[in-house]
Amino acid sequence: MKYRAEIDGLRALAVVSVILYHAQMVLFGRDWFEGGFIGVDIFFVISGYLITRIILSELETKGSFSFMNFYERRARRILPMLFVVIFVSIPFAWEKLLPSNFVEYAESILASLFFGSNFFFYFSTTEYGTDSALLKPFLHTWSLGVEEQFYLVFPILAIVAYKYFRKHFLAILVVLSLISLLFAELMEVRNDDLNFYLPFSRFWELAVGSMLAYREMYYKPSNENLASKSLPMLGLYLIAYSILFFDGKTPHPSFHTLIPIIGVALIIGFASKDELVGKVLGSKPFVWIGLISYSAYLWHFPLFSFGRLDGEFRRREALLLILLTFILSFLSYRYIERIFRSSTKINKTKFSVSILVLTLIVSSFSFLSIGTNGFESRFTKSQLETINQFSKREFIALNHPLGKLGKDFKSGEDKLNCRMREPTSACSFGNEHLVFLGDSYVGHYERAFINIFEEYDFGYVSFNYDQCPFVSDQIWFGNVAECVIVNRQRRAIIKDYSDPKIFIISANYDQFDRAKEIVSDPISIGRKNLIDGAPIDRSVAWGSFFENIEWLLSLGHKVVLIRSLPMPNINSQGWLMSHKEYIDDQSYPNIVNSSLRSAVQKLDLEKFPAFQNRNLLIIDPSDALCDQQTDQCFDVIDGLGPIYNGGRHLSFFGSDLVGKLVEKEMLRLGWILQ
Q: Could you read off the pLDDT of 402-439 as tens digits, one per residue?
């Protein structure tokens, strides 16, 4: 194949946009590269173009295609650098990952090694409350999984089409691409997470590259006219527009993704060394970055991920990590990639043996990691007790104290855990005087409150259901369409209560901005984790939330309404791993975040009405989690520990602080007696 420098220039655009996207740097109040995720899509088109050129060229010149040679070339390009990044990452994982996260890390290594990362990360990252995707060191290998799965299927498809349906080769590509694109568009509104990772949702992007290769080989296009020379500039504009103006709300992959894909196609199809875009992309700086782009792609995400484990890094730290990415990438390209790609420097036998040995080593290490539960022997007994407490989010930590099982609403299976049960089989204990009612932002209070109010002989009921606050039975959020049925059952049960209760109510109030109308079959859609639903105005969600509180009060119940939490800055799990020395003697320092108590409460006052009811107790958790004199809010408190665990969810320590504030106020009001 004739070398095209502008292709390496496109690779440079792709990898730089992905790196800047993951860096999440804010300049002048905006993250300018929120659409940088389309860099992966650029890679897909390039890969489709190159693989098709290789296959068709070999079929034309030799009349056959060598799968052995093709996959050897792929292995030489992909595996050596992947092994290097894996081995370099192990010491950092050892030092920074909790046992449960270390197990997932080991599993992700295996998945990346055998090119199944896209499916692995779909199943491990889509559950509500799991770690942020940015904290998973090998998440970015999902795209390698998609590409390699394409490389397993497409050569067979291409050869069959070439030999038996040669006249219809392009038509077959076009039809399959249209089916794939339509599938992606439909899946985007049904299950956008699954759509993101599915290889068939991405097939059309790679196939666009294939069509470009076919056009180049068999139609011998002339790019000499003025129109053709202007098309690469349009392509560059479409790519730039996507990077700058796409964001997390842009449906992707979908019809919207046509914008950058058409842009890439115009550059591959019409750019050359004789026109402006081709000259720019083919210049030495772009080509140099393009040549090291694979190494840069592999290096940047683990660097960012491990860097974020202590909390979001600042702009200066992001720039240093980007610089380190390119230094490592240059060294990797020169001393790893170029050497292993050369069959004269490392022959087939040596390469095969080395890859086999390395695969056995990494696989053995991964299975040992899983078998030892993330090498728990790394920690002292007290460290392990605290760390294990933070391994599970507090809102999923409550189990029935007597081992009474209840049905999980989505699966229908019996379980000991109290979270997301059918309301009719909710966790209940004792006299059921306390009722926890809401989503995971009431769930994280349960264990601490139960512990505090045990001395008052308060039993409890847990209506804790992720993404399902106590709102109208016509509203739902996220991927829990069944929330409308859950709230219907909650109301029916509450209506039958014969004695007054104390309801503990809170919610993730941010999700009220993303409320949706009831769908025709909420249980079926909820069990499939689908997300499609017509949006409704947030005022409707807020209004129904307050109406339900008024309804509870009208029935004679008491209500403790807990308002918004400050936003933390650190990741408690990563912080604990980096500061294990504080655990043994509980010598935690005070660490504040960027939230101000007054600002948090001011925002709440704008949203919450001025209730006038003696049976309603409104709690500002910032009164317990912040210093009233300095107005600063804490992430870690001296003698206690980290007070958050998982985004804005509280740890047991943080929930205990709020619980003691609630106890104090209930004593003041005479709701409970000392």
A: 999 999 998 889 999 999 999 999 999 999 999 999 99
Helices (H) and strands (E) in the chain, counts: 28, 15
Distance CA 322, CA 313 (A): 12
For 409, list phi and psi in degrees, rounded to 5.
Answer: -65, -40
Q: What is the pTM of this model?
A: 0.87
244, two tokens: 């700058």
- DSSP alpha helices (H): ranges in 24-98? 38-62, 67-96
Measured distance CA(412)–CA(410) in Å, rounded: 6
**Residue 618 gets which letter from DSSP?**
E
* CB-based contact 581:383 (threshold 8 Å): no
Q: Are 152 and 208 contacting, i.e. CB atoms less than 8 angstroms apart?
A: no
Residue 26, beta-bridge partner list: 31
| Ramachandran area for residue 222 (φ above 0: left; ψ -120 to 50: alpha; else beta) | beta
The Cα 385–Cα 175 span in angstroms is 57
The predicted structure's pLDDT at residue 310: 78
Helix, strand or coil for residue 421?
strand
Report whether the peptide linkage leading into residue 302 is cis, meaning its omega lies within 30 degrees of zero: no
Reported as a pLDDT band with limits 50, 70 and 90, residue 249 is confident
- Rounded to whole angstroms, the Cα distance separating 212 from 439 reads 50
First CA to last CA across the chain, in angstroms?
A: 84
At residue 552's C-alpha, the angle toward residues 549 and 557, to 5°, is 125
641-642 and 632-637 beta bridge pairing: antiparallel
DSSP state of 131: P
- Residue 574: count of CB within 10 angstroms of its CB: 22
HSE toward the beta carbon, residue 253, CA cutoff 13 A: 28
CB 226 within 8 A of CB 268: no
Separation between Cα atoms, residue 245 and residue 234, nearest integer Å:
16
CA neighbor of 110 nearest in space, from 364, 363, 305, 298: 363
**Sign, Cα dihedral of 319, 321, 324, 325:** negative
List, for residues 95-121, the tens digit of each pLDDT value: 999 999 999 999 999 999 999 999 999
**Six token digits for residue 525:** 């859609």
The SS3 assignment for 595 reads strand
Residue 637 phi, psi dihedral angles, 5° rounding: -120, 135
Retrieve residue 60's tokens.
């034309």
User: Distance from CA of residue 145 to its chain's centroid?
Assistant: 17
Q: What is the H or E stretch that residue 517 is in?
A: strand 516-517
Q: Which residues pair with 562 in a beta bridge?
A: 619
Q: What percent of the chain has pLDDT over 90?
A: 81
With 0-12 CB in 10 A as exposed, 13-18 as middle and 19+ as buried, what is 507? buried
Other C-beta atoms closer than 10 Å to the C-beta of 83 total: 19
Distance CA 461, CA 659 (A): 17
**Residue 442: helix, strand or coil by DSSP?**
helix
Taking each helix axis from N to C end, the angle separating 258-270 and 226-245, rounded to the nearest 10 degrees, works out to 150
DSSP-based three-state secondary structure for 186: helix
Crossing angle (nearest 10°) for helices 293-308 and 67-96: 20
Q: What is the pLDDT of residues 528-546, one digit of tens each?
A: 888 878 999 999 999 999 9
Tokens for 485?
Answer: 């049925």
Measured between alpha carbons, how far is 646 from 567 in angstroms, rounded to an integer?
Answer: 11
Share of the chain above pLDDT 70, in %: 98
Residue 223 has pLDDT above 70, yes or no: no
